[in-house]
Write a structure and sequence with these properties.
The chain has helices spanning about 1-40, 60-70, 70-105, 115, 120-125, 125-140, 150-155, 160-170, 175-200, 205-240. The protein has about 240 residues and is mostly helical. The protein has one domain (about 1-240): 3 helical TM bundles of succinate and fumarate reductases, CATH 1.20.1300. It is globular. It starts with a helix and ends with a helix.
């Protein structure tokens, strides 16, 4: 029993560490995307220099952010991020299956507290994970496959104007709806996942538990608002701004 207990804690710790890594990436990614909204207010949305050099003077803020995502440092981090995501998915599946067996039913997630038991997201983390993963591949086909994939592996046609990718993708209302559903799933997943990370490492007393739940909602809301504002702004730019 002790070995099984420690093995279970180990799985959850790995899940928590990989989740924390992904939260940091989402903050970075969302911030760079939000640069396109800032560009809209500055009148530089769509500004891309004629040359294809990194960090050209005529580029808008979002284009400069995308140039940063094309640097060697990020190229090195991409496979690490992919590995972290893969680990998070695998261990999420393992934990969910173990919890289903342990509960003797189809509960989606093992709740360690009354607050967690009352949380819809806590009970459906596996379902949310499936939704997030499914639309993730959809997202990669729209952006990563047209920017980093051609640069890193020489596959496909490179798009040097990320603003065009934004308007082409989010300019369609039904595409915007799909992404908004994705962002909602990410928000629910993050709200539970954030405080669950700290609970795994022992921060589960009544005082910190309540604080971490509030902080988790704030962090999740901030991240998702960055992405939502980017998508809605691109839709507006594509359909209502001449």
């Amino acid at each position: 029993m002790p070995n099984a207990f420690h093995y279970s804690i180990g799985r959850k710790l790995i899940q928590a560490v990989s989740g924390a890594f992904l939260v940091l990436f989402l903050l970075l990614h969302g911030t760079i995307n939000f640069f396109s909204v800032i560009d809209s207010f500055k009148g530089t949305f769509g500004s891309v220099a004629d040359d294809e050099k990194l960090f050209s003077a005529g580029d808008g803020l979002f284009k400069l952010g995308c140039d940063f995502m094309s640097t060697t440092f990020i190229d090195i981090m991409v496979p690490i991020l992919a590995l972290g995501l893969l680990i998070h998915i695998i261990y999420g599946i393992i934990i969910s299956v173990k919890n289903i067996k342990a509960c003797g039913g189809l509960k989606r997630y093992e709740a360690q507290s009354v607050a967690a038991a009352d949380s819809w997201a806590a009970k459906n983390m596996f379902v949310l994970g499936i939704v997030i993963l499914g639309i993730l591949f959809f997202h990669l086909a729209h952006f990563w496959a047209k920017m980093q994939l051609p640069e890193m592996f020489g596959v496909g046609n490179f798009e040097n104007n990320p603003y065009l990718l934004l308007t082409a993708t989010f300019g369609k209302w039904w595409m915007l709806v799909i992404y908004l559903i994705w962002f909602a799933a990410i928000w629910l997943h993050l709200c539970h996942g954030f405080w669950s990370m700290f609970q795994t490492v022992g921060w589960n007393n009544q005082i910190w538990f309540k604080r971490l739940k509030v902080i988790g909602v704030i962090v999740a809301t901030l991240i998702v608002l960055l992405f939502v504002s980017t998508a809605v702004n691109a839709f507006i730019q594509a359909n209502f701004i001449a």
